[in-house]
Design goal:
Layout lengths: L1 H16 L5 E15 L8 E13 L4 E16 L11 E17 L5 E18 L2 E2 L8 E12 L4 E10 L12 E3 L2 E3 L1 E12 L1
Antiparallel strand pairs: 1-2, 1-11, 2-3, 3-4, 4-5, 5-6, 5-7, 7-8, 8-11, 9-10
Length: 201
């Protein structure tokens, strides 16, 4: 954790010192809908917040790279459904510090298509079944994922973002019931859809 925080601080200190020269950056905030593949429930029913800082470096007229430092709430939620005689309540709350590295392609319409890897560090976790706190396995501190999205300009300063964020490796170190295979790993995975606004400083 100490090494991760130190590297993060050094990176952002260097990047922010260069903003006036060749970078542009700003703030971002919005909402996410999340689910956990492999937890035996389905549906993006867990709302969460997404907020952070971003820095973009233009490569040429059509290309740029962007990194962010954000706080991202993920997890899973299953509410009781009396019509189906399902009285189970389940909640998983996961809070991450996340740093994506995105390649962006700028279309002539000024819409941006972006994609790239991301790395998250778990700050806190909570898991409950029928309103009682439980633990079905230890969560991984680090979790890599893949992001992809579309950026729609609103003004010269503000843009709207639609993005998906999907874990590459399991979010747990322990094996659990319902676990799925994804690429070359077996476990549970965060899947998120996000909508947020960004403002260029």
């Amino acid at each position: 954790m100490k090494h991760f925080c130190l590297l993060t601080i050094l990176f952002w200190a260097y990047a922010l010192s260069s903003v006036a020269q060749q970078f542009n950056g700003g703030l971002a905030a919005g909402l996410a809908g999340s689910q956990v593949a492999g937890d035996t429930y389905s549906g993006f029913r867990k709302p969460g917040a997404y907020t952070g800082l971003w820095i973009r470096l233009a490569i040429d007229e059509r290309s740029s790279v962007q990194t962010e430092l954000s706080y991202f709430q993920k997890g899973s939620r299953h509410n009781p459904d009396e019509k189906r005689q399902d009285f189970t309540f389940y909640l998983m709350r996961l809070g991450y510090i996340e740093m994506p590295f995105l390649y962006q392609y700028h279309l002539k319409s000024k819409i941006i298509i972006e994609a790239g890897p991301s790395l998250s560090y778990l700050l806190h976790s909570y898991e409950a079944l029928d309103y009682i706190e439980v633990s079905y396995g230890k969560f991984s501190l680090f979790n890599p994922s893949f992001m992809a999205g579309i950026v729609f300009p609103i003004t010269d300063k503000m843009s709207a973002h639609l993005r998906t964020d999907n874990s590459i490796l399991s979010i747990r170190t322990d094996k659990v019931n319902g676990a799925r295979y994804r690429i070359f790993d077996h476990g549970q995975y965060n899947d998120c859809f996000m909508f947020f606004l960004s403002y260029k400083l």
